[in-house]
Design brief:
Largest sheet of chain B: 2 strands, antiparallel
Number of strands of chain A: 11
Distance between the termini of chain B: 45 Å
Bound molecules: adenosine-5'-triphosphate, magnesium ion
Number of strands of chain B: 2
Order of helices and strands of chain A: EEEEHEEHEHHHHEHEHEEHH
Order of helices and strands of chain B: HHEEHHHHHHHHH
Number of helices of chain B: 11
Oligomer: heterodimer
CATH architecture of chain A: 3-Layer(aba) Sandwich
Distance between the termini of chain A: 29 Å
Radius of gyration of chain B: 26 Å
CATH class of chain A: Alpha Beta
CATH superfamily of chain A: P-loop containing nucleotide triphosphate hydrolases
CATH architecture of the largest domain in chain B: Orthogonal Bundle
């Protein structure tokens, strides 16, 4: 474990993985778009993750160009959430968790020793798999909670409130009861409230872990519209089990698979390529629902 | 099969009474817990009844004066010549308990947060063991410590408080004697209630929902931010509950107060002066040499203490319930 945690800082473009995966098949962990070696957006290099001795992610190198939407797909338990949580340093929150590799946000290594974690998390927002509004706060307070936590001065709270709730597709339903507790909403409404809350601090990257799994088709479409709109401004990484959703919202897609080994990226490419002419048979099987 | 979907014509039907049939095991368990619950109520009412009947003569003779006046004179042991009134003791009990609460509160909150969020597991284990030990120390030890060690120092602190804040009525004194004051007693009580209040509070803080704490962190919150946004609101009722347990102990504490408080039959709100009251300590101090009549008066005082404790608990739990409703 110790040896694995040695980081390789050598500035090489992570086009191919250093270690060949254990399985045959010649799969390659690849950057999403090798032509685009920009310093904006989000890059990961050789990411590994462990929970105790359990190696759950192996050598994930992905590139999330600025202002794109990337879908992370793959069967349950393959490490999508774990990977996502490493992008805003929520992984280290779990006591047994450890990691190796590097994550760059606009060219800056977020695991570097002198980095302010809170500042990183402010720039990399997150929507969790399970809705988690603050029950002790009103709906309005929930949306503005991030600005308060980070001591951001907001000049026009009302318009920020309306903007974020509208983007999350919740404004119409709650505009007359902003003073009610955040816990008084339905599960799907709570999730949209959490999306609004994440948007209120104006992140440059938004991580979403199955944000629509508790939502009805109408709100799901509303969220997808929001993601589309947001992608003009920010970088979105979204985990989803819904293939249609991945096809609809994402520009790029990465297919994760663990298959008895630590989770790896089997294939990562433009979404249309992943869905219509994937390189790997397992990807084809998965996106066509014959797998997992 | 067809499914008719017509607008309903009749008025709303009568509501059905929904019952469930319980199986044998469930019925036995139900009886068991009911019996247990009833027993505790019965025992409690027996205690109250005993106190009431033994003290009845006193209540009949003095009526409300027993709780609104302050004298304790058994005279020749006849009810015609004796006068009993415990107003000063009731007030004194409340004053010392409130001092204990006010002093203990910041320590309860900060040490509970410290142990739960800022300490390595090993150190936490050690500190928690020490605190549990503190809860197990008999109150006579606290009393002796308060009398022998704390009082000489606390009298000095009281003198400085009086010097600088004496213009506030509660910190003024008539005579410059700061020993055995409600202040000293309250400090000892604060120390005594700290372990129990803190372990309840800590327990509740440790159950603050992790997903909400994570949400606070993910929004760029600091640890203190997450505590303020999630842990403190979540733990509010636990904090009040823990403080209440402490309050119960403070109101009922006898020996430690007896050693560190000068019982005086005069209602006063000067917390630094060497004069205070405590119903429990009154009973303890008099019961040894009490005449039969005085014994009845002490029983009556016991009932007053009993009711006082019940009222405080009732009031506080309704505060908790209100706070809970706000959170929901
Ligand atoms: N807190 C944890 N402690 C220990 N092991 C964990 C923890 N969280 C996740 N794991 C393990 O890590 C692996 C990856 O989990 P992860 O939650 O990342 O999967 P996922 O791809 O998000 O799955 P799903 O689609 O079901 O959400 C799993 O084998 C899981 O058992
Ligand atoms: Mg997941």
């Amino acid at each position: 474990m110790e040896t694995n945690q040695n980081r390789q800082v050598d500035g090489v473009i992570p086009a191919t993985s250093m270690a060949e995966p254990a399985t045959a098949g010649g799969s390659q962990s690849s950057t999403l778009d090798e032509r685009m070696v920009t310093m904006s957006g989000l890059q990961t290099k050789g990411i590994h993750a462990w929970f105790g001795d359990h190696h759950v992610l192996e050598d994930v190198s992905l590139d999330f160009p600025a202002n794109t939407v990337t879908g992370l797909i793959g069967p349950s338990g393959c490490g999508k959430s774990t990977f996502l949580r490493m992008l805003n340093r929520m992984h280290e929150f779990i006591p047994s968790a450890s990691m190796a590799g590097e994550v760059f946000l606009d060219g800056e290594e977020i695991y570097a020793p002198d980095v302010d974690v809170a500042a990183i998390r402010l720039r990399v927002g997150m929507v969790f798999q399970k809705p988690n509004p603050f029950p002790s706060m009103t709906i309005a307070e929930n949306v503005l909670a991030g600005t308060k936590l980070a001591n951001i001065k907001v000049k026009d709270k009302d318009s920020l409130l309306e903007e974020c709730l509208t983007r999350a597709g919740l404004w119409k339903e709650v505009k007359d009861r902003l003073k009610l507790s955040g816990a008084s909403l339905s599960g799907g409404q709570q999730q949209r409230l959490c999306i609004a809350r994440a948007l209120a601090v104006k992140p440059t990257v938004l991580l979403m872990d199955e944000p629509c799994s508790a939502l009805d088709p109408g709100s799901t479409l509303k969220i997808e519209d929001t993601i589309h709109e947001l992608s003009d401004l920010i970088t979105v990484v979204i985990v989803t089990h819904n293939m249609q959703q991945a096809a609809r919202v994402s520009d790029y897609c990465a297919f994760f698979l663990s298959d008895g080994h630590p989770g790896r990226v089997i294939e990562a490419d433009r979404t249309d390529i992943v869905f219509t002419s994937p390189q790997d048979q397992r990807t084809a099987d998965y996106v066509q629902g014959r797998f997992g | 099969m067809t499914i008719a979907f017509e607008p309903s014509t009749s008025a709303a039907p009568p509501r059905r009474k929904v019952v469930d049939s319980r199986n044998l095991g469930d019925r036995i368990f139900r009886r068991g817990v009911t019996a247990g619950a009833l027993t505790s109520f019965v025992v409690l009412s027996f205690i109250a009844a005993l106190l009431f009947f033994r003290g009845f003569e006193i209540f009949r003779a003095f009526g409300l004066d027993f709780i609104t006046t302050s004298t304790w004179d058994a005279a020749d042991g006849t009810i015609e010549n004796a006068t009993f009134g415990v107003a000063a003791m009731i007030v004194g009990s409340i004053v010392t308990a409130v001092i204990a609460m006010v002093v203990a509160f910041p320590f309860v909150v900060s040490s509970a947060l410290f142990l739960e969020f800022y300490v390595t597991p090993k150190l936490k284990f050690v500190l928690v063991s020490v605190l549990d030990l503190m809860a197990a120390i008999p109150s006579i030890i606290y009393g002796l410590w308060g009398y022998l060690v704390l009082m000489p120092h606390a009298a000095g602190w009281a003198a400085s408080i009086n010097k600088y804040l004496g213009w506030i009525p509660i910190f003024s004194v008539d005579v410059e004697n700061f020993d055995a004051s409600p202040f000293v007693s309250g400090l000892v009580l604060a120390l005594m209630i700290l372990p129990i209040a803190m372990s309840v509070t800590r327990e509740v803080y440790s159950r603050a929902p992790l997903d909400q704490i994570q949400a606070a962190y993910a929004l760029g919150g600091s640890r203190w931010g997450a505590i303020r946004a999630v842990v403190l609101p979540f733990g509010r009722s636990g904090l009040v509950g823990g403080m209440l347990l402490g309050l119960g102990r403070a109101l009922g504490e006898t020996i430690a107060v007896l050693l560190t408080l000068n019982l005086v039959f005069e209602v006063k709100f000067q917390v630094l002066a060497s004069a205070g009251g405590s119903v429990a300590s009154l009973i303890a101090s008099r019961i040894g040499e009490a005449t039969p009549l005085e014994l009845k008066a002490l029983m009556a005082a016991g009932l007053v203490l009993f009711v006082l404790t019940l009222l405080v608990n009732f009031g506080a739990s309704s505060i908790v319930a209100r706070a809970e409703r706000r959170v929901r």
